[in-house]
Design goal:
Blueprint (H helix, E strand, L loop, with lengths): L25 H16 L4 E3 L9 E6 L2 E22 L7 E15 L5 E7 H13 L9 E4 L1
Antiparallel strand pairs: 1-2, 2-3, 3-4, 4-5, 4-6
Length: about 150
């Protein structure tokens, strides 16, 4: 069981901008592991630290056997557009269509502070972009094209 708790709207922390992580230690690794636990408990595919009340630039993603955590993520390149339905653990009971980049190149750090860079496409790219929006206080409902 995680020591962190999921927050939902209208909690004002969800609208705050997260700050860069500067200390890479065992406590950071524990936060990342706790975030994975919460995401799995809630049956989600992604989670940003902001969603558990931590205003740090951390995201975790787990989808179709792929798992990643990114600290201080930044999108370097974007290609193509796609529209699909999104939902969010912090916005229960709502979903809608959001336009996202189909392919992104993203860089960041792992929980040890080592640089990482990768390309994500399709639904993994969508998840990463959704979670990165949380780091800037943006929710998917701010980007709805067509509510369903």
């Amino acid at each position: 069981m995680s020591s962190l708790n999921l927050i939902t709207i209208p909690n004002p922390l969800l609208r705050q901008k997260a700050v860069n992580v500067t200390v890479f230690d065992d406590k950071l690794e524990a936060r990342v592991n706790n975030m994975f636990d919460i995401m799995i408990e809630q049956q989600g595919v992604g989670l940003a630290a902001v969603q558990v009340g931590i205003l740090e630039r951390i995201i975790v993603v787990r989808y179709e056997g792929s798992e990643l955590s990114l600290i201080n993520p930044e999108i370097l390149n974007r290609e193509g557009k796609t529209i699909d339905v999104e939902a969010c653990l912090s916005v229960p009971g709502r979903q809608g269509y959001v336009v996202r980049d189909k392919c992104i190149r993203v860089k960041g750090q792992n929980f040890k502070g080592e640089p990482v860079e990768m390309e994500q496409t399709d639904f993994m790219a969508r998840i990463v972009q959704h979670e990165m929006d949380h780091l800037d206080g943006i929710l998917f409902i701010d980007k709805l094209e067509d509510f369903s």
